[in-house]
Amino acid sequence: MDIAAQYGPLRPQIDEAVKEVLDSGRFILGPNVRALEEEVGATLGGRPCVGVGNGTDALCIALQACDVGPGDEVVTSPYTFYATAEAIARLGATPVFAEIDPVTYCVDPDSVAERIGPKTKAILPVHIFGHPAAMGRLRTLADAAGVRLVEDAAQAYGAAEAGADACTVGDLATLSFFPTKNLPGFGDGGMVVCADEELAERVRRLRFHGSTDKVVFEEVGYNSRLDELQAAIVRIFLREVGAWNEGRRAAAAAYEASGLGEHVVLPGSAPDATHVYHLYMVRHSARDQLRAALGEAGVASAVYYGIPLHLQPVFAHLGHREGDLPIAEECAATGLAIPMHPTLSPESVGEVAAAVAQVADSLPAGAPS
Ligand SMILES: Cc1ncc(COP(=O)(O)O)c(C=O)c1O
Fold first, then answer.
1. CB-ligand 1 contact for 104 (6 Å cutoff)
2. Strand, coil or helix: what is 299?
3. Which domains does the chain possess?
4. H helices then E strands: how many in the chain?
5. Pairing between strand 335-338 and 73-76?
6. CA 324 to CA 237: how far, in whole Å?
7. Minimum-distance ligand 1 atom for the alpha carbon of 189
8. Does residue 126 have its Cβ closer than 6 Å to ligand 1?
9. Ligand 1 center to residue 359 CA distance, Å?
10. CB atoms < 10 A from the CB of 18, how many?
11. In angstroms, what is the span from residue 45 Cα to ligand 1's centroid?
């Protein structure tokens, strides 16, 4: 991230918005939250949106609104942040991990189809690193099986597949406004995007202790409310996120044009996908050595999801072994995020690409095929 370059020009607007909230004395679920819900919804075909405390709560609430509970299974990706599967387990249901696509790193619809069974209640794809999951095919699968489709769009506001925006194909979709996300806030925050008003009503009730009026409590819910300061800030960033996503795509195009793909595996994209490059994940078989050498060369990099979820200790009871999901395991072992942000200049891309290429070529193992 380059905080100064991204937020510096917006500082007067941010200061003014914060001041207005402080002066208003309204701090939780006030006018800014309502406005943000409407403004995000307006960009997503008018879908009703509900602001919540964070992206993890958004997932739990969305799954509960689908009546996911003990005894149910939810088919999801093993190559994602832990919160995706944690939400399933939190509700007492079982995550069923499907294999991922080696190009997009999103869940593979053929593998999902194999795992749908009588206990399946929902499919939970993740638009990982900003690449949209194969939503058209997953929608068809969900409809044929009579199960819900929930999109984890924490990393992918603005992504699209075949012209359909992320968050507009599932029955429900979730966003995170964690500060590193491509649509960020300055703290915790999240949103549930709903296909219809009936689901939205349930989600609104769940975010406030399962009650609509603070008098009658209809189900066990959450205290998961978006606050006014975050909503006011995210409203400003919502106006910028289109240009920021363009900046990310331009940086990705510059990485491709640099010839970096001859030294490491670059992130791929489905032909009909609009990628927003929340992260720029390259792959190399000597990933850990690459990372260490890049650090010495002054280039920041990070490993994401180095242990795929099916092999995490918390899910040991599911009985998975190494080799069960080889593509996810390969990506977890070889993936490395290199610098990516909306204001990454062509010169910086050139410098990073040159450093990565030089280091990668000096390592004993070649790039994975
Ligand atoms: C794919 C994914 N899902 C869910 C979450 C959870 O969001 P939050 O950190 O806002 O709870 C995150 C981010 O942390 C994420 O990357």
1. no
2. coil
3. 3-236 (3.40.640.10), 242-362 (3.90.1150.10)
4. 12, 12
5. unpaired
6. 41
7. 10
8. yes
9. 31
10. 15
11. 23
